[in-house]
Write a structure and sequence with these properties.
Blueprint lengths: L18 H8 L4 H4 L12 H4 L13 E2 L15 H13 L4 E3 L7 H11 L6 E7 L2 H9 L4 E7 L2 H8 L3 H17 L3 E7 L6 H13 L4 E6 L6 H14 L4 E6 L6 H10 L4 E4 L13 H11 L11 H12 L16 E2 L2 H9 L17 E2 L7 H10 L6 H17 L3 H16 L5 H10 L11
Parallel strand pairs: 1-2, 1-8, 2-3, 3-4, 4-5, 5-6, 6-7, 7-8, 9-10
The structure holds manganese (II) ion (MN).
The site of manganese (II) ion has 5 residues, from loops.
Amino acid sequence: MIGWGTTARTAAAPINPTTRELQVVAGLYTSEQRGNGIREERLVHNYLVEAGLAARIPKGIRIWEETLRDGEQTPGVAYTPEEKVRIARVLDEVHVPMMDVGIPVVSSEEARGVRMIANAGLDATIMAAARTVRKDVEACIACDVDEIALFTAGSDLHIKHKLAMTREQVKEAAVRETEYAVAHGVDVSFVTEDTFRADLDFVVDLYDACTAAGAHRAVVCDTVGVMTPPGITWFFEQLKRRLKPTELSFHGHNDFGLAVANSLAAVEAGVAVPHTCVNGLGERSGNASFEELVLSLEALYGYDTGIDISRIYELSQLVETLSGIPVGMHQPLVGHNAFAHESGIHAHGVIKHTATYEPMQPEKLGRQRTFVFGKHTGSLAVAEKLRGRGVEATPEQVAALVKLIKDFAEARSKGDQQAFVVSFRDRAERRRGVTDEEFWTLGQKAGLGRPKTAAK
Ligand code: MN
């Protein structure tokens, strides 16, 4: 039972993709798509499938979306309740099965946003987060959520220096608030922070106590992103052997760029519910990215996540706009460069067959490939552009144009691009939360004096 979960609306259909099915997902041309009825020879291998690795991913994985909770804890991000509802609706429309949408005790506006989403008639399970503190739990219940993500500290470091409690006090509060929430008709996912740096005996005891108190899921958090895939495999093997039956969930951070890889290791180890944030938003370097995890499962393993992947780019852009956090230029899948080609060799390959230099077709996630014309441009991309726009050209004319483009690109000043980088850095510094000047102006409103020493 551990890790397998129950069959949900968006649970995956039976999977065991053949290489050919996987090629369809991965965006390779098939004879059917070409409509010529000729079976295409197999030109690439997919060892994830051929070696049976894809088949190891258990059925029934459901994404737990954190864009509206951990994603909003990205430094400098604050959504209005209306913006939260807008994002929640799109997440629901693409069939995200569950989402944590905030911490109601934070503010009355936060609670209003959570309540609006909980009452928006969405199919997804709506969750809110609470510390093991009565007022937090009551604030969640008052927002009509389906479920509470009830969290406490797992590691002794957090218990001692953050909570200033004993292990016994942590356990007592966790059991007490789990029982209280369940008694009020709300499901509980029990979350321990910093689980991978915690004493295993203690967290096993803590999870088991909360399971006995009525929690139906154990959420295991790599809060500071210190795990690697083999570490994840080992840790969940320990937990599966020792925990009372419960559904397992994994919350991974990206401090070393391993959040998605760790999430894949977690689902392979039997974790049914991995956490994600759109665009990889979240505290510090963020959480496992929604688009990267979903499309790794879909495109690499041929796994049906139940998510409508055709709107992933639209969702990414919506979150980029409403969060105010720009997607990185070469961020996987949703970055500007993810499906852009400039070099002559690559553009040539892609024009002849997109799979040569693209692992999946951009159209699958609702975007287009682009050809950039510059220093590395080759003649085929130029000829294709001319042909596409109805302009006839001899090979000599194409060659002349290619030379002109290269010369132009090499001679052009980089001033423009450099000015953009400088203004971007400056803006990122100035617009994270309130500015230093705004801080002291608000301080005066609170009756404080001006600072006595210069800013460091
Ligand atoms: Mn987190």
